[in-house]
Batch of 2 targets.
Target 1
Amino acid sequence: SQKIEQNSEALNIQEGKTATLTCNYTNYSPAYLQWYRQDPGRGPVFLLLIRENEKEKRKERLKVTFDTTLKQSLFHITASQPADSATYLCALVKGQAGTALIFGKGTTLSVSS
Amino acid sequence: DTGVSQDPRHKITKRGQNVTFRCDPISEHNRLYWYRQTLGQGPEFLTYFQNEAQLEKSRLLSDRFSAERPKGSFSTLEIQRTEQGDSAMYLCASSLETGENYGYTFGSGTRLTVV
């Protein structure tokens, strides 16, 4: 069956360090992958999208990589800040482009000062 | 346009009662999605609409659940004969076409507690 796994439920790092979150998937061939941020009691907020023919995408302190051979995406936050503390979700189109996104369980990042 | 609005924010109901939630998407978005999220889990897909047409329903959407989007604008999600297992956050999202380029815009959700 189709499955999305995010490496750990929780990640704790110190301010200023780089946070790296992992998203692995099986039995998919997604055309693209998206990352979202979710704060407690709120809906997810779209951060970045990366397509299957792109290796890397950057936006300010965020960087996403996509390896379709390994079936893995890495999400990096450089120079992390306490305000980056949140749950980060990866999401894939489960079928053909045009069907709905399927989300992983998320990784909760805590950045301490 | 202030984004995706969901109403109510919180709902407490007794087991066996019916509940209805409303979602107002971003006006120019033609796609609307419903997701359910429980503590520690990612959002689980329930159903989505393109304009007024309901294009896909998850097997999670039992016969007790029904969603509508009359006229392709706002949407309602109704749960009949609620069960304790229905307690969750119900999230609505909207997007332009497939959401491929700009992602989904989510509302803040309706938290349902069935007692």
Target 2
Amino acid sequence: GAGVSQSPRYKVAKRGQDVALRCDPISGHVSLFWYQQALGQGPEFLTYFQNEAQLDKSGLPSDRFFAERPEGSVSTLKIQRTQKEDSAVYLCASSFVVRLRRDNEQFFGPGTRLTVL
Amino acid sequence: GNSVTQMEGPVTLSEEAFLTINCTYTATGYPSLFWYVQYPGEGLQLLLKATKADDKGSNKGFEATYRKETTSFHLEKGSVQVSDSAVYFCALSPLYNQGGKLIFGQGTELSVKP
């Protein structure tokens, strides 16, 4: 497909389990973003990659959250020792950056809904 | 810091009514401003954007004007359709920012009745 894909679409975890969420950006998109969206709220920025380099991780809520993009395409967001407050939809977005600009359109995936019991 | 505030929903309108969804922001300097829309069961999509003061973004009959004096970017449409039912998010990209991360408002749900 041509869009951003995420897997799994739904994940249920017991408190304390580790989870890994995958994002496949649009082919050729240099920039990749992760956002967390709590129920009834807007998305909140977690982290940003340009190719394989993680340039901004200021939004990661704790050291239990870790993201990687080793080959500059697919990205994985890992949450260790999940807690109930981690329950949210995790959104991935990508954009094609010709040069650093603040108006590049971000293309969003459908999200992964994480429920921690 | 940077933040976005939207009017609370849900907003319920009849078909062909006029729509305004208010959005105000707090930011340093001149951020870029966006409206994203999320239709039921779909991902977020860019609806329109504006990058400097007095710019007007428009798409699919929707418009929003970047007003620096009132720090606002209100979304308007002259005649809504049932198919416009969705959740609308106002967002900004800060001036001093790598890569264009977005800061979103809480979203406003719109329901249009036939």
